[in-house]
Amino acid sequence: MKIRIHFSSFLKSLLLLITLGTLTQRAEAQQATLVDNIVAKVGGHIVLRSELEFQHANAVGQGYKSPNLRCEILRSLVQNKLLLARAEVDSVIVEENSINGELEGRLNQFIAQIGSQEKLEAYYNKPMSEIRSDLRRSLKEQMTVQKMEREIAGKMKVTPKEVQQYFNRIPKDSLPYFSTEVEVGQIVKIAQIGTSQKQAAREQLEGIRKRILAGEDFAALARQFSQDPGSGAAGGELGFFKKRELVPEYEAAALKLQPGETSPVIESMFGYHIIQLIERRGEEFNTRHILIKPATAQVDMQQTAHLLDSIRTRIMSDSITFAKAAKELSDDMATKGNGGMITLPNSPTTYIPVDKVDPSIFFVIDTMQVGSVSGPLPYRTEDGKEAMRILYLKSKAVPHQANMKDDYQKIAAAALADKRNKAISEWFEKNKDTVFVDIAPDFKTCSLDE
């Protein structure tokens, strides 16, 4: 079968989103085993009917309209599976530390959204260890697809001439109309934990360790004391992991243990741990742990506010630009590489419609002048850390129809996305015969060749 995939940037972004809903869909899809639930086979990967229908409902909910929507979604799903299959052949690997970092952030976000770990487990009717495992597989697949796309088209750029040519191809009556938009930046400083807080956390964990060595049950104490939202309720058990899939400090301590043995207190980016090795199976190992996080004291927040005040003073006196300060001083990894500018998920530009601005930001910038920087504001990071930030209102655009003068950045991003999509389609044309693709009979009418 000839496969030439064409798909919209909207659908491409939509199908890569990992949300509570997509996690639910994946959990359900993994339970489907009947042949008639498979709508496509791509190498060793399959597309399930439940997966297709969920993405269709999600697209409709997002307002996407097309007479052949299911076929477009199928093409995009087949494309992702092709990328995964070729990633295996070409040994394209996503670093485990990157997956683990994203996993922890997503889990904390989900727990915050639904209210508690217990509510999350009740929602899925499964323990946190299984939810973690499901989400990890989804994230690994998503990040592998993204890395393959970067391998194919990641280094592409567009010239001003190409941007103008792309804009000229848009019919005048189809030019988008942009509502009021803003560009907002942030510099985040995470409150530093004082020595006394660290010592208190370590001493608490040392006391728990003594109780374990005296004969108390590790799992029972983990359920009582562990502050890890992902494993505490499961007696601290993480499940089987391979080498380099957990943070280095944890793995190094775990691999020194014999089954049933408990480690000394160790420190990682998450806090302080004691670890018990449950079982080693070839290159995999299963552990349980108890995590205690040092408490954040008020004095730390005050010191953080003072530090941000000094950064703000330097920016306002023009001794450093906001972008340079964000790159060098911000603790927010998601924005510091972008000069501190906040973007919407999967958005190629820094412009944000005001109706999509986070309320905690909107009510601050609503009273600010363009070019000004706010005072320090309390902030909680996605992984639950206490922090403070300053906000920068870079620009504010009035409602208007798209034009090259005001919207060059957005038009250039769209032109680049179009160029990359064409490159990926060309790549498929050259590589389509390297992976076996089979489509279910009731979807044969979907024209995957167009």
Sketch the major β-sheet.
4 strands, antiparallel
Instruction: Please tell me the overall pLDDT.
Output: 84
CATH class of the largest domain: Mainly Alpha
Query: Which word captures the global form?
Result: globular
What separation lies between the terminal Cα atoms? 12 Å
| Percent range for β-strand residues | 15-25%
Number of strands: 13
GO molecular function: peptidyl-prolyl cis-trans isomerase activity
Protein name: Peptidylprolyl isomerase
Signal peptide: 1-29
Keywords: Isomerase, Rotamase, Signal
If you had to describe this structure to a student in words, what would you say it looks like?
47% of the residues lie in helices and 16% in strands. By secondary structure, it is α+β, with helices and mostly antiparallel strands. It has three domains: 9-161 and 408-443, Triger factor/SurA peptide-binding fold (Orthogonal Bundle), CATH 1.10.4030; 178-192 and 297-401, Chitinase A, domain 3; 195-292, Roll (Chitinase A, domain 3), CATH 3.10.50.40. Strands 9-4-11-10 form a four-stranded antiparallel β-sheet. The longest helix has 26 residues, at 128-153.
Outline the secondary-structure elements:
Blueprint: H1 9-16, H2 20-30, E1 38-42, E2 45-48, H3 49-61, H4 69-89, H5 96-114, H6 117-124, H7 128-153, H8 160-168, E3 177-178, E4 181-190, H9 195-213, H10 218-225, E5 237-242, H11 248-254, E6 266-268, E7 271-281, E8 284-292, H12 298-316, H13 322-329, H14 333-336, E9 352-353, H15 359-365, E10 377-380, E11 386-397, E12 400-401, H16 408-431, E13 437-439
Antiparallel strand pairs: 1-2, 1-13, 3-12, 4-9, 4-11, 5-8, 6-7, 7-8, 10-11
Pfam family, one: Rotamase
Keywords: Isomerase, Rotamase, Signal
Signal peptide: 1-29
